[in-house]
Write a structure and sequence with these properties.
Helix content is 12%, strand content 43%. It is mainly beta and 129 residues long.
């Protein structure tokens, strides 16, 4: 089943944030197995790097199980998981269809911080109460 990651009907289970230079990027997590597993891993300190001038990626300590997790369309604001490499892929530009990319959530605010970030940087991923 193909589900568009910006589907406004997707159930949100939590808000998380990535802190970049003391500024938050707020992400809504969709209700699926992979997102629930990600929540169990945070808080996390990750190395965020640019990939293809379209997305920021970071490798997770543990791979996510993708049962009931829909594929993503990789459009701007998609917060995704790239299964072949086991990394988060956070899109600030569109990419289009890509195999192995699964929808974890969407950026609610702060996408411009990702686009402006030019060098690799260490970030914190944490749950928002």
């Amino acid at each position: 089943m193909q589900v568009h990651a910006t589907n406004n009907k997707a159930k949100i289970i939590a808000d998380i944030k990535i802190t970049i230079d003391n500024q938050p990027v707020i992400i809504e997590l969709f209700d699926n197995a992979a997102s629930r597993q990600l929540l169990k891993q945070i808080p996390l300190t990750l190395e965020l790097s640019d990939f293809a001038g379209e997305e920021k990626i970071a490798y997770l300590p543990d791979k996510l199980i993708l049962q009931d997790t829909p594929k993503a369309n990789t459009i701007p604001s998609d917060f995704t998981y790239y299964a072949p490499w086991g990394n988060l892929a956070i899109f600030y530009k569109g990419y289009g269809q890509a195999d192995g990319v699964y929808a974890l959530g969407r950026i609610k605010e702060g996408k411009e911080l990702l686009a402006q970030l030019k060098q690799n940087t260490t970030v914190t991923l944490e749950y928002i109460d």
